[in-house]
TrEMBL record:
It comes from the Bacteria. This is DNA ligase. GO terms for biological process: DNA repair; DNA replication. Gene3D superfamilies: 3.30.1490.70, DNA ligase/mRNA capping enzyme, Nucleic acid-binding proteins. It comes from Thalassolituus oleivorans MIL-1.
Amino acid sequence: MDVVNFLLVTVIIVTVTWFSSPILAATLKPSPALMLAESWQPDQDIAGYTMSEKFDGVRAYWDGEHLLTRSGRIIEAPEWFTSRLPRTPLDGELWLGVGRFDEISGLVRSSIPNQTLWREVTYQVFDKPHSPQPFHLRYLALINLIQTADVAWLKLVEQKVVSNRAQLDAYLAEVEARGGEGVMLHRSVSLYQGQRSQDLLKVKSVQDSEGVVIAYIPGEGRLQGMTGSLLLRLDDGREIRVGSGLNDTLRHTPPALGTRITFAYNGLTSSGLPRFARFLRIRPDE
């Protein structure tokens, strides 16, 4: 066998071995069908909703055996953290506390659990996927489930009845005053849906959304030779440019094409596109 053929066979063997490795295969599962929020608009009626704090953590789906990111990647949590969780699907946020998003994001992406830091993590649970019950009954079931489990790091996200706009505004102000991210509205009679839904709404002083990077727009002037803005495809198929919020590091090495990012914006244009869009961060599970 000549050198070229030997190298080719070696590459094939290594490739097959790598992708058939049980270790690699175990790190990714099918993306869980999670219920995703729409952004609340000031003219939307909030009758029939409950409200809760929106935690600035990393979304995590518990399938009864593993914690998974939205993309289906297994989160390498310590065995002691997961072994006492109920063996029923849960939906929630892994949270380290106010202002510590970067820490929890890095922890979740790590393949080697930081045992010390995981001791500070709580799993803030707000829903019970796959249940056929409406939300208000799923919430009652969660209360019982979490009380019975009696696990220190397993927390119930408290729901409050909201009757009018004044109550919502007051609660949003209270949450943001202590450094919280915002408020979630959940329609009491809604069923769990594995898609984006008006039955789940996020309320923030500054709105945010997500999009996928599909191209780079070259910079001009001071930004000559760098990325001026990212071209994003939104979930509805429309496209917008996001340049504000990118630092020079990201302009030199922008997020890879196909990466999903979060951007902030202030209201919508007359055509329904986000106004004043600006980069916030790469989604934690990318």
